[in-house]
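User: Please predict the structure of the protein below. I'd like the answer in structure-token form so I can feed it into my own downstream comparison script.

Assistant: Understood. Taking the following sequence of 221 residues as input:
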Amino acid sequence: MKLVYFITFAFIITNCNCKAQQNIYLVAKDSNESFSPEDTFRVKESENEEDFVENEYLIKDLEPIRKNFKRLNSIAKWDSVIVKDIWLSIEGGEAKYYYSKKKLRKIIARYYGETYQNLSEYYLLNNKLSFVFEKNYKYNRPLYYDSLVMKENGDNEVWDLGKSEITETRSYFKNGKLIHQISSQDCGAPFAAEYLLEEQKTIKEEFKELLSALIKKEEDN
């Protein structure tokens, strides 16, 4: 019988005086068993969370976006959830599409790699992209970097979850336009308009790819 332990880690990230608490589920497997990034740990998606307020900037425009985020991530039972394997990274990943009252309300996408894990949450409001919450975990060493590999490479560190470099990005959309973005590495200072336009393009392209993957799955079925 395979030995599997489930351990919950909770730690506080402090960067530029911006604080965010993250929950991570680590699955430790028997050392004789091969593993994939999905087996190791899954970043916990938002659940019963409220968006924090960095400052008074655009607070009236952001209020309905934040309320919608809280409402959707508090839903315990969805009408349907469609799961799709995605290959937007070398190690692949998974996308989940959440429906309520026959409408797509949010998408949760996970991307895995030997040196990172990324969780992207897309929330829709009035059938349009409203809020995107991205959590990126960059590991200090690759997942397979145990004490033996460390010695073979003349290194002094093994893979350590607690040493991950963690970045959170929150993107707010109004009428299809990215109006504000907050990064844990930036302390919430407003970004330049040109930068937001580039970010808007990137996010919308990724969102479009996820929608295309959903359409293809429905056609296959």
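That's the full token string. The chain has a mean pLDDT of 78.
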